[in-house]
Amino acid sequence: MDFDRYGWKKKLMSQVSQVSPYRAQANALYDRVKHVVPAMEWATFVDDIAAILELKEKHNAVILAHNYQTPEIFHCVADITGDSLALARKAQEVEADIMVMAGVEFMAETAKLLNPSKTVLLPSQEAGCSLAESITAADVRLMRQKYPGVPVVTYVNTSADVKAESDVCCTSGNAKQVIESLKVDEVIMIPDEFLAQNVANETGVKMITWKGHCEVHERFTPQEIREWRKAFPDLVVLAHPECPPDVVAEADFAGSTAGMSDYVASGKAARVLLVTECSMSDNLAADHPEVEFVRPCNLCPHMKRITLPAIRQTLEQLSGKVEVDAAVADRARLAIERMLAV
Ligand code: 13P
Ligand code: SF4
């Protein structure tokens, strides 16, 4: 008897053989995000993911993704992930020809400064940062005039121009160590006022601050954390140090996005509130389905400019090249390298 007289089996087999290896690879990635991405939503991602996998290979490109990127980017197309410090360190070692920064502009500039022979692409020109926009190089020069001899410690969330006017950079992951390494009683710490106040509380070093704030973290309040604790008495609260000091004071732990990630991975908490950007909880929930995440999060509109279609387009067109003005590049690099040496 002819079991395949309509030729269905033959048709099916030929369709299977037409599925590109990238499509098959993309389909298999669903397993990584199945706890946080509904199947219906996944169906809208898979074409772009397959195309991005193919384009990365074609152009010898890698994707670096910050912890605030959405799970389909963070878990499915990124090669390198982490907080700003980890992304900077790992960018230095990239051997591929192209780095696509799934993050914001200052992260892309930092990658370019640390590995200048590579092409760095940023998929959206609107992926800025409220902290970076709060201060200019001229502001830093004026502060130096006002406080002569006081070292300038600059958060990496700044433009290369501002870094070039600084003595050393820091991230939220190493701010305390950088400040302590200077062995002074007073520093100019810019532009994040709250980070500076939080580090002053930790180190006892006097901070001359700037009125820059992260538009995501400044919105959290101590009252809301107290309300969540009332609702969930076993709640463990982890806060980013860009939050106001009275919010950090309510938390069980304060640290960079990598610090929060390590805390969750340590298995010390069954129910967690991350006082930070929303995607952080999604990315950790994908890896730790056993942990319950309470989510009164805030979105970063800049990080959210980076989407799968934007990454695909930047790789198709090799657009969004990041360049750093040669007049400031060497001085900006020095400030970052001093930080990495601490
Ligand atoms: P992290 O260095 O902790 O990842 O923070 C970067 C950032 O932009 C936080 O808002
Ligand atoms: Fe900047 Fe805040 Fe967005 Fe981080 S979360 S990129 S500090 S605006």
Walk me through this protein's architecture.
This protein has helices at residues 8-18, 21-28, 30-33, 39-59, 71-74, 84-92, 105-114, 137-146, 160-164, 175-182, 193-203, 222-231, 245-248, 257-265, 278-287, 308-317, 326-341, and strands spanning 61-66, 80-82, 98-102, 119-121, 152-155, 168-170, 186-190, 206-209, 236-239, 253-254, 271-275, 292-294. The chain is of the alpha/beta class and 342 residues long. The protein folds into 3 domains: 8-127 and 304-317, Rossmann fold, CATH 3.40.50.10800; 132-214, NadA-like (Rossmann fold); 219-299, 3-Layer(aba) Sandwich (Rossmann fold), CATH 3.40.50. Strands 2-1-3-4 form a 4-stranded parallel β-sheet, sandwiched between helices. Strands 6-5-7-8 form a 4-stranded parallel β-sheet, sandwiched between helices. α2 crosses α4 (39-59), α4 (39-59) runs parallel beside α16 and α6 runs parallel beside α7 (105-114). The protein binds 1,3-dihydroxyacetonephosphate and iron/sulfur cluster. 1,3-dihydroxyacetonephosphate binds at residues 67, 83-85, 157, 171-173, 214, 240, 242, 256-257. 1,3-dihydroxyacetonephosphate (13P) is lined by residues 67, 83-85, 157, 171-173, 214, 240, 242, 256-257.
